[in-house]
Every structure is written in C-alpha cells, then in structure tokens.
Amino acid sequence: KQLGAPTSINVKETPIDTLSNILAKSMAYSLDEQDMVIQTHRFSASNGSKRVEVNAELVKLGDKIGSSPNSASAMAITVGVPCALGTHYLLQKTSPFLNSKGVLRPSDPELCRQFLKDLEASNVSFKTTSSSTLA
C-alpha cells in the first residue's frame, strides 16, 4: 500500500494529533493483512579459555485482521501476554515471587524459567541456539 499525501487533512487541536490521525487512516491494516514482530537477542561471554554465544530469536505473526472477532495483532500479543503474566504472578497468593521485594529483574533464574514456560504455553516462544569456542 502506498503512503501518499492525504487528499484532505482534518486538522486537530495539536500537530501530533493531526499527524496521528493521518497515519491512522493511511497505515491501518486491511482485511486479511497481518503484522509481524521480530526480536533477536545475542549474548556472548568468556572466561578467558572459553567463549559462549547464545542467540534467541522470536518471530510472531499476528492474526489476519477480521479473521475472527478475537483476532489480535502480533504487537498486542507480544506486549499484552507478558504484561498479563506479570499481573497474574502478582495476584497469585501462592506465587514464589511475592516474597521478593523491589523490582524483579529477568536475571532471577526461577522467574525466567517460569516466565518462559508460561510464554510458550501462550504460543510466544524464542528459538534459542548456542555455540562455544576456545578463546
């Protein structure tokens, strides 16, 4: 779809509202279109004698627009599911994370394992590969 200049501009209260209105009309998905989210994470570490590299990739396709009343974009899924899981953990009376104080970082192994398991159960998962070499 070509993004050309609109034939008429509906001026709003602020410039950003005007631009937002133009983009919402020109960039809206048509029926049967879908979005895609791609994430790539690369980590490497070495201890002097050995170097390890881990790659994690996520490719998530959203539902086709209009395919069902409950269709969701990939952006909505990859933002909403982690947020919902975090809320679920906080509201669970039996959650092991309730005893933690402050901001929980994703470096907590127990939290990470549970979070990734629950993401996968919600059909959001990373493909992970790793390699090691002598430094």
Account of the protein in words:
- The protein has 135 residues and is an alpha+beta fold.
- 32% of the residues lie in helices and 23% in strands.
- It is built from 3 helices and 3 strands, in the order αββααβ.
- The chain has a 3-stranded antiparallel sheet, with helices on one face.
- Strand 1 (36-46) and strand 2 form a beta hairpin.
- It is extended and about 65 Å long.
- The mean pLDDT is 85.
Reading the helices and strands in chain order gives HEEHHE
**Numbering strands along the chain, what is their spatial order in the largest sheet?**
1-2-3
Overall mean pLDDT stands at 85
Residue fraction in strands? 15-25%
Total E-strand runs: 3
Oligomer: single chain
Q: Please tell me how large the radius of gyration is.
A: 21 Å
Secondary structure category: alpha+beta
| Unreliable sequence segments | none
Please estimate the helix content: 25-40%
| CA-based shape | extended
Biggest sheet: strands, sense, closure? 3 strands, antiparallel
> What is the distance, rounded to the nearest whole angstrom, between the alpha carbons of the first and last residues?
49 Å
Number of helices: 3
